[in-house]
Amino acid sequence: MVKRCIMIFPQFSNMRVIDEIRKKYDPLAGHVRPHITLVFPFLSDISSDKLREHIVNALSETKPFKIVLKGIIPVQSLGNYLFLNIENGKEEIINIHKKLYTGILEPYLPQWLKDCEYNPHMTVGKIEDEEEYKNAVNELKHFSDVFETVVKKISVEIIDDNEDSIIEMEIDLK
């Protein structure tokens, strides 16, 4: 069984700003690059070839698209999270998410996602301590940097026993 996740790893010219926030507030910052999750971590015996074939087929009509991220939103429904908001490109990401969770990946749609709407974002913080979380929210409430890029590929990572990200494959959008 392999633990995988399917994501977008956007490349921004001002990526260091995100890296600094994540270093301070995101416990996974040292394990995985800044990303937008499309298919949440799942454990399976699906072969790399079958997974690649599914992704290529599911996204055959998906072309590269522009995304713009701006503003940090506190989200407490699943824990004390800080999300970098996706301002443009959200619909495209939602469509990719829905297409990927068909066929061989349909059984891996988490129960919690069946009960709520998928909200694409980039996690920049997860803070356990309530007081620390309030301070972080206060510190970042006027954060106004803008992050823009064109998404050209989708990545599949393997998550190892240390929670480190190992890129298994990348599929180019055409």
Describe the structure.
- By secondary structure, the protein is an alpha+beta fold.
- The protein has a single domain (2-172), classed as Alpha-Beta Complex (Cyclic Phosphodiesterase, Chain: A).
- Helices cover 28% and strands 36% of the residues.
- The protein is built from 5 helices and 8 strands; from the N terminus they run E-H-E-H-E-E-H-H-E-H-E-E-E.
- It has helices spanning 15-25, 48-58, 90-100, 111-114, 130-140, and strands spanning 2-8, 36-44, 65-75, 81-88, 121-126, 146-151, 153-159, 165-172.
- The strands form 2 sheets. It has a 4-stranded antiparallel sheet, with helices on one face.
- Strand 3 and strand 4 form a beta hairpin.
- The longest helix is centred in the N-terminal third of the chain and has 11 residues, at 15-25.
- The chain is globular.
- The relative contact order is 0.27.
Structure in a nutshell:
The protein is α+β, with helices and mostly antiparallel strands and 174 residues long.
